[in-house]
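Thread: "does anyone have the structure for this chain?"

Original post by V.I.:
We have the sequence but no experimental structure in hand. Need at least a predicted one for the grant figures.
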Amino acid sequence: MNPRMLWATTARVLKQLRHDHRSLAMIVVVPSALLAIVYWLYENETLPPGAPRTFDRVGLIMLAIFPFIVMFLITSITMLRERTTGTLERLMTTPIHTGDLLFGYGIAFSLMAAVQSAIATGVAYWVFNLDIKGNGGFVVLVAVVNAVLGVALGLFCSAFARTEFQAVQFMPVVVIPQILLCGLFVARDHMNDVFEAVSDWMPLTYSVNALQEIAKNTDPTPALWQDFGIMAAIVVGLLLLASFTLPRKSS
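Reply from O.Q.:
Generated one for you, tokens below.
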């Protein structure tokens, strides 16, 4: 990869996002708005004295799931838009490498993911009093990596789509099964053997595991760092795979 072309791609994508107000609103506002809906769902919950709120468990995991979904959609559709408008094909006629292109996209959207995750975590903590055991920094870190995971998966899936509609069709195939099997609805050790084995290969599982470790412990644990490392490795692996599968032409 060429560092100059890598950063040029990053700057171009950030400039495009700065002028795309709808995408900016979706990145910055939507996760916090959805988190507010989750909070209000449990607002009138009746609990025994001293019992933890359901929102503290569900809301913490949603800090991973909502950015993951939003960044997957934004990234996959943006890359398809580059292809259908001919921008991608024109870029491919230059000396730029696919790695420069995809990692440039990854860096640009990762910066936006960091802003998104920081805002959502701040809203959860200061507005909705989410109990994060004093680990706000680690919650933001996991949320950022999970949003970046959505970016990487979106870039990877966009390589196999021809239209924006096809990119959206990856949602029920790639994203929704991960949400169902990540441990949000049913603890993974309570699933049948097949589903538990499948969930071991799903990236979102490790995001939820990491946040559950944060919820149970006031200090970072080896399991948290292990999950964090697996997530980071998956992000890099998906970007590398996407760089190999991205066609040099749009047709």
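V.I.: this helps a lot. The chain has a mean pLDDT of 85.
O.Q.: and The two ends are 25 Å apart (CA to CA).
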